[in-house]
Amino acid sequence: MSTPIYFQSLSDTVRQLKSGALSSEKLTETMLTRVRALDGGLHAYARTLDESALLTARSLDAARRAGQPLGALHGVPVAIKDLLFTRGIATASGTAVMADFRPDFDATVVTKLKAAGAVIIGKTQLTEGAYGNHHPDIAAPVNPWRADAWPGVSSSGSGVAVAAGMAFAALGSDTGGSIRFPSACCGLVGLKPTYGRVSLHGAFPLASSLDHIGPLTRSVEDAARMLLVIAGEDSNDPNSLQAPVSDLHGDLASLDPAKVHIGVDWHFVSAGVAPAIVAFMRSAVEQLNEIGFNIVDVTLPESYQTLAEHWPVTCGKECAATHASMFASQRTAYGPGLAALIEFGQQVTDRDYAYLETVRAAFRDELQAVLNNVDVLISPCMTMPSPLNAEVEAATRSSSEQAQTDADNAPPQAPFVNFTAPFDYSGHPTLNLPMGLDARGLPQALQFVGPLLGESKLLRIAAVVEAACSKLTYPDP
């Protein structure tokens, strides 16, 4: 049975568009029609950009006919998270207070997508301010695998749009796990690049020292193609890295597993982790061994626990600074989740914040030292299998009760950030790879962690694993 066009890979679709086998205008019309048919029930999009998308698609078709140079994303419909600035178009960041905010410039990554020939068909929904909860007045995106399953946060709309075949790829952001959770729960490849590899200019921040922008796709090759387009130095972003990007795509198949060493810290991946996830990790290691990779026992710096536990301190203080003026004048327009984070952040002392910066720096260096002895590390993405919404709510309530017992006033958070937040602190690149379905028929994912600026290595290793494992067949709502 042939793959429906809307579930075809981005890379294959671009090749057909460049050859003239597909028309960008007709493909864009097809995708927008699908969004109109499905999104009333899935709520992946904050807004679609029908008129501008079709105009762009027509101009790209004309450019191809005229023999003009074509970009790496020529004519393919993609989506972007609605915290990425779009000139003259509302960028609400999942909030009520910014519902009418219309930037006067495009985010750098948006400019890069357009320059590469992408057709941006819409802006995807996210949790309020890219934190943990959707605003009470906004319908949360629905996981296409199962309506009562958690879609992941905060890039929930991006994950749902790609998994449901309503975009060939989407951009998300990740501050504590917000690319990795939706990709894990929706069965996608989720790539969080090295901090500074992709510009944050024009991305409304949750916590600017932790924020990362990256792609959610249905294949490793697609993630590589997307990253190649959006990566690069940007003088408008003071944290942007001067690093070459030409090697990010490369020959994804040119890798000998026998020469690759993959590290696993069994204490890290099993302490406080559901037995089903530990079993999944052991099965994944067996698969990697069968492919021919060398598995090496390693020990991660213990400070990962401090960073994961106190992530709200850094996130809260930086978020409170970003929202200071709006929160003071429009407090009642905020939902309870983001409001709690801001109020907590207002109470964080400079001393506590500075202490975590010291821990961050040491962890980054110590983790890089571990990665000097192996090519990548592996871990789960979450401490439990892909959860149902009710299970996330229960875990969040438990976290809230524990916080009250500890009298630290930290906002409640589900205990998922153990495997994600430490690498936002350190800035190391990570890649989530779908690894089949669990006992409930929901996606499960393996997380790869690479050395700083090691995206090429991550992508090549993941491509070999992907080729050896059966790919997911996505549900067609």
Secondary-structure blueprint:
Blueprint: H1 10-19, H2 24-42, E1 45-48, H3 50-65, E2 77-81, H4 108-115, E3 119-124, H5 156-163, E4 170-174, H6 180-186, E5 189-192, E6 212-217, H7 220-230, E7 261-264, H8 266-270, H9 275-291, E8 294-297, H10 304-309, H11 311-330, H12 336-347, H13 350-371, E9 376-379, H14 389-406, H15 421-426, E10 430-437, E11 443-449, H16 455-468
Parallel strand pairs: 2-3, 2-4, 7-8, 7-9
Antiparallel strand pairs: 1-3, 4-6, 5-6, 5-10, 9-11, 10-11
Structure description:
There is one protein chain. By secondary structure, the protein is α/β, with parallel strands linked by helices. It has a domain at 5-230: Amidase signature (AS) domain (Amidase signature (AS) enzymes), CATH 3.90.1300.10. 42% of the residues lie in helices and 12% in strands. It contains 16 helices and 11 strands. It has helices at residues 10-19, 24-42, 50-65, 108-115, 156-163, 180-186, 220-230, 266-270, 275-291, 304-309, 311-330, 336-347, 350-371, 389-406, 421-426, 455-468; strands at residues 45-48, 77-81, 119-124, 170-174, 189-192, 212-217, 261-264, 294-297, 376-379, 430-437, 443-449. The protein has an 11-stranded mixed sheet with strand order 1-3-2-4-6-5-10-11-9-7-8, with helices on both faces.
